[in-house]
């Protein structure tokens, strides 16, 4: 792909080809990426899975949201390649593979294998022999220095992510983490190079290519670093990153920030939060919501398992509790718990079984809430978000205004909310301020 193909030009007209085609490995991560693109001036549609129908609105960028972060490697590759083929058919001029800002991926994880599968596919059509990787997102306290990922002031493996129930991260050295997953040689573009700007970054890429390197972790400790990197990525067939790099790409297509990019219909109806994340941030958000006096109901995986064995419909019980409260303000249903409680449930039910049980229950609750008049719904946790979106049979979402860095409001059509549709937020577990749940509804109003 030549730089000329990616040069600045007018905004795409109705029915025109999309400029940027994105593949995200979970649903909250997809909205995180879309949020940054919208803030930088792109009109963005997020689709759930690989579409079987045309887009419902014009877009400069499309984000295909997959649920591939923790599935078997071969399945993640197959899903990602299917998304790539669809995006190429829409005329996407550049491909962006988005993963979590905490690089969620064990030694047997999917980031490296999916990246290399996409590179292999793009090598045939675009000569893709090199790509970059960086989960840096300084606005959300994710920085990369000398190839090491920091969460706030601590290394990734000291941030709480070492206790993640599905993807425990015990090594902050991303060159080492990615190399363990890849057959291509992995290198580093460090902060000193990035600070010198586009020309220096391109020279470093050329030098790494000459050394036989096919992938490089890139340092970034500020938004300025990401903007400098963005300029250097113009013309690169494949970009792999968290959502941070997205702030530097729209300018390559001649786009600038605009309030019209995030416009959504007016919000109506009931308000609810469904939280399945067990991150430290989500635990704080649950506590803050409860301390503000809002109604909240916790569900315990062990109790859910016992009740299901006895033939009791847990979702129906929760919905019966919530229904009379929906006209009075937001309600919260959560399975958020501390690390010890999560491990106890996993020990008795099994890791995947405990996760699936919570996802299935919360998805049924979310669907039931919408059918009972909720039209403003916040969902916390990547796996929970994926299950809820699928239960609501949502296929496409228009991306709207930001609540907190990485988390926007969206608008979608679903049979569960006929007519005006549903305002929906999919929050990554690690994102958001302590008051996020209540703040979200204030911003939408």
Helix content: 25-40%
Label the CATH architecture of the largest domain: 3-Layer(aba) Sandwich
Task: Using the coordinates shown, work out and report the CATH topology of the largest domain.
Answer: Rossmann fold
Shape: globular
- Assigned CATH class of the largest domain: Alpha Beta
Helix and strand content put the structural class at alpha/beta
In the CATH hierarchy, what is the superfamily of the largest domain?
A: Putative sugar-binding, N-terminal domain
State mean pLDDT (0 to 100 scale): 89
Descriptive account of the structure:
The chain is of the alpha/beta class. It has 2 domains: 4-258, Rossmann fold; 264-444, 3-Layer(aba) Sandwich (Molybdenum Cofactor Biosythetic Enzyme, Chain A), CATH 3.40.980. Helices cover 36% and strands 22% of the residues. The strands form 2 sheets. A 15-stranded mixed sheet has the order 9-10-5-11-4-1-3-2-16-17-18-15-12-14-13, with helices on both faces. It has a 3-stranded antiparallel sheet with strand order 6-7-8, with no helix packed on it. α2 (73-89) runs parallel beside α3 and α12 (351-371) crosses α13 (382-391). Mean pLDDT is 89; it is low at 1-15.
């Amino acid at each position: 792909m030549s730089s000329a193909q990616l040069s600045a030009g007018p905004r795409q007209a109705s029915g025109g080809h999309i400029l940027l085609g994105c593949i995200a490995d979970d649903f909250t991560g997809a909205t995180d990426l879309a949020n940054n693109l919208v803030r930088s001036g792109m009109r963005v549609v997020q689709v759930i899975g690989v579409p079987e129908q045309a887009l419902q609105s014009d877009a400069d960028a499309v984000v295909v949201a997959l649920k591939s972060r923790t599935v078997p490697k071969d399945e993640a590759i197959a899903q990602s390649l299917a998304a790539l083929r669809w995006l190429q058919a829409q005329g996407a001029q550049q491909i962006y593979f988005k993963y979590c800002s905490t690089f969620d991926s064990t030694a047997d994880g999917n980031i490296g294998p999916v990246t290399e599968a996409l590179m292999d596919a793009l090598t045939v059509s675009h000569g893709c022999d090199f790509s970059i990787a960086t989960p840096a997102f300084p606005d959300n306290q994710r920085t990369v220095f000398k190839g090491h990922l920091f969460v706030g002031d601590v290394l990734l493996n000291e941030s709480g992510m070492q206790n993640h129930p599905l993807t425990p991260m015990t090594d902050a050295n991303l060159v080492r983490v990615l190399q363990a997953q890849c057959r291509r040689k992995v290198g580093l573009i460090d902060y000193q190079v990035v600070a010198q700007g586009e020309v220096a970054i391109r020279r470093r890429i050329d030098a790494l290519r000459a050394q036989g390197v096919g992938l490089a972790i890139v340092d970034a400790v500020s938004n300025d670093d990401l903007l400098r990197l963005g300029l250097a990525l113009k013309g690169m067939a494949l970009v792999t990153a968290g959502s941070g790099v997205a702030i530097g790409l729209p300018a390559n297509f001649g786009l600038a920030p605009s309030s019209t990019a995030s416009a959504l219909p007016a919000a109506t109806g009931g308000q609810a939060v469904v939280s399945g994340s067990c991150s430290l941030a989500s635990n704080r958000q649950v506590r803050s919501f409860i301390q503000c006096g809002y109604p909240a109901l916790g569900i315990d995986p062990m109790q859910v398992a016992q009740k299901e064995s006895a033939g009791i419909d847990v979702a129906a019980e929760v919905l019966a509790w919530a229904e009379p409260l929906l006209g009075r303000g937001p309600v919260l249903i959560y399975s958020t718990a501390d690390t010890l409680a999560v491990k106890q449930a996993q020990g008795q039910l099994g890791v995947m079984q405990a996760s699936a049980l919570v996802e299935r229950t919360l998805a049924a609750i979310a669907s039931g809430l919408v059918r009972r008049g909720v039209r403003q719904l916040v969902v916390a946790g990547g796996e929970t978000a994926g299950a809820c979106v699928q239960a609501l049979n949502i296929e496409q979402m228009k991306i709207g205004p930001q609540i907190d860095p990485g988390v926007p409001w969206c608008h979608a059509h679903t049979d569960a909310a006929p007519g005006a549709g549903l305002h929906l937020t999919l929050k990554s577990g690690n994102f958001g301020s302590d008051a996020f749940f209540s703040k979200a509804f204030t911003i939408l109003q």
